[in-house]
Design brief:
Blueprint (H helix, E strand, L loop, with lengths): L1 E10 L2 E7 L4 E5 L6 H13 L19 E8 L4 E8 L3 E5 L2 E2 L12 E4 L5 H4 L2 H15 L1 H27 L6 H37 L6 E6 L5 H10 L1 H7 L10 E6 L2 E2 H4 L2 H23 L4 E5 L7 H11 L4 E5 L10 E7 L2 E4 L4
Helix pairs in contact: 3-4, 4-5, 4-7, 5-6, 5-9
C-alpha cells in the first residue's frame, strides 16, 4: 500500500499545502521547527486517529484558526481509499466520503510503522511505553482490540471511583463484584490478543536480531501479565481488594501488563548499552513490518522521523533492506544520500514544501 497525496489546511504550521508522494522513498529535509514532523503526524493521524505527540487535538490546529483539515488519498492492492479528518470543536473523520461513527473504524485502512528518536524510551521508560507499542500495532490489525481497551478503561475508571467511595463514604465492598466480572472478561480477551502478538514477535526477532548484530547477540522477549488465567486473576482481584480500597485504585489488570527484552540473557532496560537499546528497537520495529505484511498481504508505510541520524552505518544498511519493500517517508535536517535506491526529495521551510524541481 502507499499514500498518493496529502492535503493540509490550517494543520500545525501549514496554512494550505498539497503534497504528491512517490510510491517508494520520500525524503523531507530542512532545519528544525520548519514542519517536517508535522507531515508524519498528519499521516499517523489518518492511520490511528490521533497524534503520536499532541495530547489534545486543538494543538494541531494552526494558531489563530478554529478548524483544521487533513486529507490522505491512498492505494492498496485491491482498492483505493480516502481519509479526511476535520479538527475543531469535535474531531470528524470520513472514509471515502462516509462519516465514521467511532474512532476505531479508522483503524486498518492505512497501516503504518513509525520510528522516532523517542522510541528508545519504549525499553528505557516505564511499562506504559511498551503497552502503547503493543496497542498501536494490534489495533491496526485487530479492530475489536481498541473497542475492548476502551470498555476496559471505562470499567477501571468506574471501579476506581467506587473504591474511593468505599473508603470515604463506607459503601458496600461486595458491589465491587459487578465491576470485577467485567474486568476479568475484558482483561482475558485483551491479554490473549497481546500474547498472540508477543508470540509473533518472538518468532521473528531472533532471526532479525542475529542478522543485525552479525550473530553476536541473542534476543528474547517475555510477556508479563496476570490476566491469561481467568481463575487465578479472579482470585488475585479478591486478594487485592483491601489494598485497592486503601490506595483508591485497581492495582492489578491489563493496565499493569509489560514485556521484557533480554539480550544475551541480560535485561536490556537495566544492563543494555545505548547501542543495544537502539538495535533492540530496530529489531522490534522490523518485526512489526513483517507481522503487518503477513496479516494484511501488504507492507505498512514506514515513517522515519529523524531516525536515520540515530543509527550507525551498520544499522542503517540493515534498515535500508526493508526500504525496498514499502513506501518510506523520512524526515531529516540535511539531504540524505541513500545508496542504490531511488527517492524523491522535498525541502521544508516555514510550513511550505518545495519538491526537487523547485529546490
Amino acid at each position: 500500500m502507499w499514500i498518493k497525496s496529502i492535503e493540509l489546511k490550517n494543520f500545525r504550521n501549514y496554512k494550505e499545502q498539497k503534497i504528491s508522494l512517490d510510491k517508494n522513498i520520500n525524503i523531507f529535509f530542512g532545519e528544525n521547527a520548519q514542519g517536517k514532523t508535522n507531515i508524519l503526524e498528519a499521516i499517523y493521524l489518518g492511520s490511528i486517529g490521533k497524534s503520536f505527540r499532541a495530547k489534545r487535538d486543538n494543538e494541531m490546529i494552526n494558531i489563530g484558526k478554529e478548524n483544521s483539515y487533513i486529507k490522505l488519498e491512498y492505494e492498496k492492492k485491491d482498492r483505493d481509499g480516502k481519509i479526511e479528518i476535520e479538527l475543531g470543536r469535535k474531531k470528524i473523520i470520513y472514509y471515502n466520503g462516509i462519516k465514521l461513527k467511532k474512532l476505531s473504524e479508522i483503524l486498518g485502512n492505512i497501516n503504518i510503522v513509525i520510528f522516532t528518536p523517542d522510541d528508545i524510551e519504549i525499553l528505557k521508560g516505564g511499562p506504559q511505553n511498551r503497552r502503547k507499542f503493543l496497542d498501536i500495532m494490534i489495533s491496526q490489525l485487530r479492530p475489536n482490540y481498541m473497542y475492548l481497551l476502551n470498555l476496559y478503561s471505562k470499567t477501571i475508571e468506574q471501579r476506581n471511583n467506587y473504591l474511593r467511595q468505599i473508603k470515604e463514604l463506607k459503601k458496600d465492598p461486595q458491589l465491587l463484584d459487578i465491576w470485577d466480572e467485567k474486568i476479568i472478561e475484558y482483561s482475558n480477551k485483551i491479554s490473549k490478543y497481546r500474547n498472540e502478538f508477543i508470540e509473533k514477535i518472538k518468532n521473528k526477532i531472533k532471526i532479525i536480531h542475529k542478522e543485525i548484530t552479525n550473530n553476536e547477540e541473542e534476543i528474547e522477549i517475555k510477556y508479563i501479565t496476570d490476566s491469561l488465567d481467568i481463575e487465578n486473576f479472579k482470585k488475585l482481584l479478591k486478594e487485592r481488594r483491601k489494598l485497592d480500597i486503601i490506595k483508591g485504585y485497581t492495582t492489578k489488570g491489563i493496565h499493569r501488563d509489560d514485556f521484557e527484552i533480554y539480550i544475551n540473557n541480560k535485561l536490556v532496560n537495566i544492563y543494555g548499552s545505548q547501542g543495544q537499546h537502539r538495535t533492540a528497537i530496530l529489531t522490534l520495529k522490523i518485526a512489526e513490518l513483517h507481522i503487518v505484511n503477513e496479516e494484511t498481504g501488504e507492507y505498512p508505510i514506514l515513517l522515519l522521523d529523524d531516525f536515520m541520524s540515530e543509527l550507525d552505518e551498520k544499522r542503517r544498511k540493515n534498515l535500508l533492506k526493508y526500504m525496498q519493500k514499502t513506501q518510506v517517508i523520512i524526515t531529516c535536517t540535511e539531504k540524505l544520500n541513500i545508496e542504490n535506491l531511488k527517492y524523491k526529495e522535498y525541502k521544508v521551510k516555514e510550513g511550505k514544501i518545495f519538491d526537487k524541481e523547485e529546490i
